[in-house]
Design a protein that fits this description.
The protein is an alpha/beta fold. It has one domain: Ribonuclease Z/Hydroxyacylglutathione hydrolase-like (Metallo-beta-lactamase, Chain A). The chain is about 20% helix and about 25% strand. The protein is built from seven helices and 19 strands. A seven-stranded mixed sheet has the order 1-2-3-4-5-6-9. Helix 6 runs antiparallel to helix 7. Bound molecules: zinc ion. The site of zinc ion (ZN) has 4 residues, from loops.
Length: about 280
Amino acid sequence: MKGFYEITPKEQGHFRIGSKMGVFMDLFVGKEHALLFDTGYGFGNLKEEVRSLTNLPLYIVNSHGHVDHTCGNFQFEETVYIHEQDMEMCRVHTGEQMRKGAVANARNMKDEHLGVFGDILPNDFQEEQYLKGGAGNLAPVKEGDSFDLGGVTLTVYEMKGHTPGSIGLLWEEEKTLMVGDAMNPFLWLFMPEALTLDDYRRTLVKIWSMNFSYFYMSHSLEREKKETMVDYMETARDLDYEQGVSFDSPLAAGLDARICTRKGYGVQDMGKPGFASIVISKGHF
Ligand SMILES: [Zn+2]
């Protein structure tokens, strides 16, 4: 099991926990409590990793209900907080069918962007137990709820768009915002559960008005400056579906999803500074 997750210490009291699936979780450790933001796919023993860093009582919060953020919930007996609007979707995404798909992907990874190929499951992965894992002990959170860990205060903000119940956590002391998938250089708005482009635009305006200096996203390791948001805001403002490039993925089958890149950038520029895009289908205008 050791080695499945990679832990990167960030600011004092903050660790990023990454895995080969390219999704990051965040552990915050205060004086009295700890908080885990997202649980990833949960293929490895995440609980053991968390407990190697802290023995404090643990809050668990899901940024949204998607499979790659919630399937590790089952490893914990603690309450898992999630926005009410994503609760039902979380139950579907942590159900047996979605887990089977996730396991199949992990056995046959072909991700050129991540540089990951082949079977990435840990040697002692217990498939039966995993498939029956379920959603965990879900309870609702809403905007304004706050988690006081003792010197680390994390406040919930609603950031709908990518999903109806996407939330972020503002780390008040560090003026650092955790946005999950709510904001991203490769923002997915094409799935049926996503809201409209206008909803996403309103969320960007709301986030811009908030008092923070840095943010972290779920699918990249490094901290971004608030100003980076301008790339995403311009992309959302100028989006032209007709100019978009077809998004070729089994996840988008039949949805006519297109990758709409920021003006002056193409899909080949993905990963370059300044690149931003939104993957969107017709039902989201
Ligand atoms: Zn997502």
